[in-house]
Every structure is written in structure tokens, then in C-alpha cells.
Amino acid sequence: MAAPYKPLLDLDTAVAPPRWALLERHLLHTQAQACRDFFAKYFDPCSGHLLCVPRWGGDDGPDDAAENQLNWTMLHALGGPADILDMFRVGFEGHIDQYTKARTIDVPMARDGMYYKEFPVSLDWFHHGEGLSSYLLYGLSDPYDANYERRFRRWASMYDGTDESAPNYDPKHRIIRSMFNGSRGPLMRKATGLDWAGDPIEIEGRFGPGHGERTFGEMLAHFEQYTDVVGDCPLNLEATHLGLVAYMITGEEQYRNWVIDYVDAWMQRTDENGGIIPSNIGLDGTIGGAANGNWWGGCYGWGFTVTVPQTGEKANRPACYSRAHYGFGHGLLLTGDTSYVDTWRGVLDKVNENAREEGGQTVYPHMHGADGWYDFRPHPFSPGVHDVWYWSQRDSDRQRIAGDKWVQFLEGDNPLYPEAELDRSLAQVRDRMSRMAADDTAPDTRLSDDMNSINPAVTESLVRLMLGGIPVGRSAHTLHCRLRYFDPETRRAGLPPDVAALVDAMSDDEVRVQLINLDPIRERHVVIQGGAYGEHRMGSVAVEDGVKVDVPGDGSAFTVRLAPGAGSRLTISQKRFSRQPTFTFPWDR
Questions:
Q1: Res 340: pLDDT
Q2: Given 18, 113, 351, 487, which residue has the most CB atoms within 10 angstroms?
């Protein structure tokens, strides 16, 4: 099949294969084979069911089952082989079937199925997001799957107020009405330990729960204080990813408008709360309205300190702010408005303004309760600090992550970083496969999360090095990166076979990438796109030999021909976040 684009650049200069390029391709190949072995051991190849005991709950529930294929769609989108996506489809379709059929006995909300309308019936977005992480990125590889569009239209309607059977959203007050929400709607009462922990289960001698519980009583006790779920919570900002995906598939403004409207509501609340995002919004839209007027209240809130049942010790679990910034990233992606970044930067600054001196060193608060700020630590409050730097590319934001090895490499100060990171990732795959080989458990002694740490798809280093991006992992946030690649010969996402890429510098308006064709016999064509979703407009491309050309058309993508064994470094100008994001492949735009 002929390439859909005439190449903008012909790169003919032969280069000696650099070690980073060989490692990169080896890592892609090794992970793929490891995923095949993992799938063969832990999945039923016919039904796609995970070979475990399916349960409901926050400990080892449906989200943990889906996480066994975490990063698989990312691996394919980077250039992993086609069967990775095929196995993911089998596993994800099997997951929906398995957990639709799985039912609780004692937990009210899941007695008719843990999934309804192919979506979890009701839990928090800390868990929803983790379970959906890989599927949210599936559109990078196959946005034309009819099931994908159908599902995200349905799921988005559960959160934008248009599905009356799932009244999660109140458009008048611009709130998601409970921290527990899903396809059965919001939970409008206090949650119980049973709601969180799932049905009673035999533990001793059979299972080893990930949170260290020795009895089901300890599982209940773990969630004993997780009761105050009514009202809106910053974790619900993750739900905007449903609307974002629906918009990037369909281009329909209703989805974009809801995401912006809901994120803007949280910006307004943050501003009204003195620059710090509140952790509870009442059903009437007031700050702290469902937590006795306390902006820091609610489950997972700024003041959420609980007792560990096994030890009696106190533990701080303020998940409210750990992922909220991803919602502001969605606002930036859809509008290009940097005030979304300013809002989250402001949260970081406002919290750190409350630092104090202890024992001759500065310590910073990470919690707030009835007695003010607490949980002072020797490092600044910093959730989302890497994202803020990536989004803004300001020197002042880079200073917040001084010492980060990847950033040092991008500044030219850590030249061995790529090889070291790729070596580390290969060691991770080797370690995980060693542990898989030693796993002699039977399916009826496995919980759904037992295999999560063995999953061999480790794409973090590849996202940084190949794309110049922020790794996604299990946090369910959008892929933010400077470049993405497509193979025009096979019409698929990802680098073509034998091609390696290394983003080695970036600034607000430029990104630099090395491209290498490791095949000494065959030429390759590569389509380079600005951003994960075509959101960055590219202006010109300068080759290190001095050739400089303008990117034609809408500036979203261009094609490079790589002669056998050829490679070069390209410097690409970009106007970031200047185009509407889309999943549509470059040759279909």
C-alpha cells in the first residue's frame, strides 16, 4: 500500500545504530513476548475472563482486574505488534462480560451485577479511573471501533446529565452528586465498610489481600471511616475523561462543552476557597456543604486521616488532590487556555505558603483539618508538579522539579539517561517474568490484583523518550506528549518496524527528536504528529544538515522517508495546544 502522504523530508544519511535505539526496539519486542506469556497464564483465551476469584470492592474489585492489562494499549500505540491490541480486546471484552455476570450477595449496589451498561455500578473515581486507564487510551490505536464510540457516548451521558436513569450530575449546581457514582447513579447515603470491602470472603490460608488484612473483619475495618461520600469531590474531575474521549471520537460539541463547564466550576470553587481546591461540595453547590461547612472535609478529603486496623496507627489518605489536576489538563487540551495551569500552580503555591521551620529545616504541610495544617514534611507539597511544568514549559516551573533525571537530560546535562532508563525497564520486565514463573497459585486462590505487579507492560520510559511525554500509568489521565508516530504503510498507530525515536530537547515552542531506521535493507516511512491528539500545530522542521521546510496544510502532521540505515535529528517548531484534539488518524483528517 502506498504511503498516504508524499514525504516532506527524505533522510538519506547512514548512521551507526546508537545503543539507545537498539535498546528501545528490544524493549518493545521483549514486552510484547512477555505480555503473550502473561495472557496465556492468567486469562481464558476464549472468554477473555481473568483466572481469579472476581469480587466487588475497593481492595480487589473490578478495577484491579482490568489493571492486569495496564499499559497494553499504550504499548501498541508506541509501535508494539498488532497482537498486543488483539489480546487487549479479548481481555477487555471478557472483563466486561465477567464482571457483568459477577454479583454480590450482601452488598446492595452490585446484587444485579458489578457492571451495568458495561460500566461499574457505583464506586469512586480513584477506582473507576484505574480500571479504565488502558481503555481510555485505546482510541490512540483504534478510534474507529464502533464499540468504542457506542460505549463512550453511553458513559459520557451518565455524567453530563442526559441519562436520566443515572442521575450522577446536577447541571444547575454543576456538581457530580456523590463520590460514589456510576451506571446505577450516585450513592446518596453514607457508605458502609461493606459497600467498600465487598462480600465476606475466606482469607487465611487462601488469599493474601494487598492491603495486608488477615481477616474479612480487618477488610471491613479498613474502610470503617470511609463513609462521607455524599456531595462532589475533586476526584470526580476524572469523569471528564469520558466526555473528552467522546468528543475526540465524534467531534460533537456537547461533550466538549460539558467537560469545560464542569472543570470551570472547580476552578471557580478553588478561587472562592482562597486558591486551594476544596475537598467537598454540598448538594446545594456550597463549599463544604456536605461536610458541616468544612472545605477540607469528606472521604479522601484534606483532613481524611484514618486508623490502620492491623496496627492502630494513623494514616493520611487525602486522595482528593492526588489526581484532580488531570481535569485541569483536560481544560487546557480543549481550549489552550493556560489559566487552567495557573489554577493548579496556585494550589501548590497556596499550600506551600504555610511552610514553617522545624529543627532548623523548612517543612511543608500536606493535610488540613479542624486544627489547621498538619502532616508537615521536608519536601514541598507537589502533586501534579511535573504536569504543570510540562504544560507551561516555564523556567520557574522547571525549578520545582530540579534534580529530575529526565528533565536534566532534556537540558543536555544527563546524556546517559536514555540508556539507563531503557536498561532499567528491561530489568523490570525480566523481574516480573521471573516472578510469574515462580507463581504456582491456582485460579481460586488468586484475587484480581495479585497479578498487577507482574504485568510486564512497562511503558513509562518509552513515553518519555519516544514521545517527550508524561507517562500515564494507572492514573487515568490523558496522554500529554509533544510528538506521536504512525506507520503509513500499514495504516496504524506507532513507529514502523525497526524505527526508533528519541526526543532529546523541548521548549515552549520547539521539540527536537532523533529518528533512526535500524533496518539496513528496507526504507521506512514515518508520519509525525504534533501531540497525542494532534493538538500541537507544527510550523517548520529543520534537519541537522541545515535543510529547513515548512509543514504544509493544518500543521498537524507530516511524513518522513528514512532510507535503509539512515537517521537524523529534527528540530520542529510548535504552537502548543492550538488545535482541537482528535483521535482521527492523520490521513483521515
A1: 98
A2: 351
